[in-house]
Each structure stands twice: as C-alpha cells, then as structure tokens.
Amino acid sequence: MILIFTTATNRKQAVEIGDKLLREKTIACYNLVPIQSKYWWKGKTVEDNEILMLIKTRKENFRRVEKTILENSIYETPEVIAIKPSKVNNKYLDWLNALIDKY
Fold first, then answer.
1. Cβ neighbour number for residue 60 with a 10 Å cutoff
2. Residue 46: in which H helix or E strand, if any?
C-alpha cells in the first residue's frame, strides 16, 4: 500500500480526479482536506487555498495514478508524492487489496 499526496485548486477538480481514479479501480479511496498553501512559484511566493488529496492505492499503481493526475490537473507542475506507510491495519489492507485486485 502507498499513500499519494496531490493538491487541486478546488473541491470540484479534486472530486473529478478522485472519482475518475475510483471508476478505473486504480485506487481504493481518497480523502479531501482543505488547506492553505504558501510556496515559491516563478521567483515569488504565492499563497493559495487548495484541496489536499490523500489517495490510497497499491504501489504498482503509482504510474497510473500519476498519469491521471497529470492529465487532469490544471497546475503546470502538479504535486504527486507517494509514501509507504510503515504500518497498516491488516483489515484495512485486506479491504484495499480486495478492491483494487478486481479490475
């Protein structure tokens, strides 16, 4: 299992990306968290309200998830970061694997 982090400009865009990934059975689920971001962009700092997406999938699906995010994000340089949790509840992991294995 991996967690993929990405951001969207608004909830509508995040839901479109997340629902597309769910329909493709590329992910088991996603969460949306409103955040305030501050970052460097083209030589100056920018502050934005964004939606952080927490996406749960299997590590072998990273490239497929990344491709969908890159194709559907309006950002010039979308964030796509994956981390592998050090521990995961066995029942949750079984649920995730059963869902993704079906496609």
1. 9
2. strand 44-57
What is the domain partition of the chain in residue ranges? 2-100
What's the chain's Rg over C-alpha atoms? 14
pLDDT surpasses 90 at 102:
no
41-57 residue pLDDT tens:
999 999 999 999 999 99
Instruction: Quote the mean pLDDT of the chain.
Output: 95
Report the alpha-carbon angle 78-84-88, nearest 5.
130
The arrangement of secondary structure in 2-100, i.e. its CATH architecture, is 2-Layer Sandwich (3.30)
Helix, coil or strand: residue 29: strand
Q: In whole angstroms, what is the distance from residue 66 CA to residue 26 CA?
A: 11
